[in-house]
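Per your request, structure below.
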């Protein structure tokens, strides 16, 4: 009896936080959670949600008319929804701790039915200049955690070691023995869904800008870095530490290679995506979400190493969070490419509600919610 009362009070308390004044809508009854088709996951916003300098969330908020606000004191940021289209937008906060807790919070929120929802992470990132150029967009197959590790100060590492940072349960980067994946060191997204998203967007012509050319032309030793923006496939390394430099870039490539058994390719560096997946995995076990409907789209706002002639320290000081050379292009292209997928899902929801793109299997029975 106490449990029922507690859950009811929680539900009513959350529903009381629904700000529907902008559209005059009525709060949803506690026994009728709002069905959500797509959750757009962003990590930060600068200032307000609209009308000022845009972060990751603002374009989605304005252009997708996410005009119903659901107060979310249990999260980093309030939840916004377009009740007509079924698109939700959230801001998790930066770092794996924020992303994991925010995703878990929205996944357990009784106001929403997320069992059929698709999840689109759309955020900026540092990119390896060996693989992509500023403004480029990468779909990830693997999410690799860069924090779970052993570490020795680089001034104390053995002479035959390249890095002082090496995997848990190993004797070094060259140790090919036991790998324990139980802590969330690496996650693989649904390959068929990633194939579908990449095929839908790989031939898109992305806008270019003179400011992008001015920076990418400095990377004379990296042919791909000098290209105009393009869509590619490349894996995401999530770490709470904002690292930079050619030596750390070498480590990142080795790290992704190690945890994916040579099948992954480090392309983008950010902070959140393993936390996002970990919460979705737990929520999937509870029947709240379908973790196989997650897509991670990262866009290049900056490079992970400096151009020839500049030190890592100097270039890192130049490339700060609000002044990345490719920031505006990365934000715009995240929306442009991500919207192709969102529109396809919405326009053909009768199909995609029950059958995940790329799946040839018989649709599973809908999950029940306890």
């Amino acid at each position: 009896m106490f449990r029922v009362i507690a859950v009811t009070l929680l539900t009513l308390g959350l529903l009381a936080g629904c700000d529907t004044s902008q559209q005059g809508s009525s709060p949803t009854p506690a026994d009728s959670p709002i069905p959500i088709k797509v959750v757009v996951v962003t990590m930060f916003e600068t200032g307000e949600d609209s009308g000022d300098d845009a972060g990751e969330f603002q374009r989605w908020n304005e252009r997708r008319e996410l005009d119903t606000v659901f107060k979310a004191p249990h999260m980093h940021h309030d939840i916004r929804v377009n009740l007509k289209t079924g698109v939700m937008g959230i801001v998790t906060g930066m770092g794996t701790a924020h992303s994991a807790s925010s995703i878990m919070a929205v996944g357990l929120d009784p106001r929403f039915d997320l069992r059929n929802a698709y999840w689109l992470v759309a955020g900026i990132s540092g990119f390896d200049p060996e693989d992509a150029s500023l403004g480029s967009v990468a779909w990830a197959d693997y999410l690799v955690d860069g924090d779970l590790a052993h570490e020795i100060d680089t001034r104390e590492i053995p002479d035959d070691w390249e890095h002082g940072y090496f995997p848990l349960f190993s004797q070094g980067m060259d140790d090919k023995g036991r790998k324990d994946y139980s802590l969330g060191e690496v996650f693989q997204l649904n390959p068929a869904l990633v194939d579908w998203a990449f095929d839908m967007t790989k031939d898109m012509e992305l806008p270019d800008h003179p400011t992008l050319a001015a920076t990418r032309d400095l990377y004379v030793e990296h042919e791909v870095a000098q290209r105009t923006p393009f869509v590619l496939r490349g894996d995401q390394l999530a770490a709470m530490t904002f690292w930079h430099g050619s030596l750390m870039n070498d480590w990142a490539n080795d790290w992704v290679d190690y945890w994916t058994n040579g099948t992954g390719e480090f392309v983008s560096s950010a902070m959140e995506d393993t936390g996002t997946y970990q919460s979705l995995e737990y929520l999937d076990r509870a029947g709240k979400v379908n973790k196989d409907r997650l897509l991670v789209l990262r866009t290049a706002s900056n490079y992970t190493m400096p151009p020839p002639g500049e030190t890592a320290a100097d270039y890192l000081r130049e490339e700060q969070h609000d002044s990345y050379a490719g920031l505006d292009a990365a934000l715009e292209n995240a929306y442009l490419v991500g919207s192709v997928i969102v529109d396809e899902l919405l326009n053909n929801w009768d199909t995609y509600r029950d059958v995940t793109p790329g799946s040839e299997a018989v649709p599973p029975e809908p999950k029940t919610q306890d």
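The chain has one domain: 2-148+183-352.

Regards,
D.
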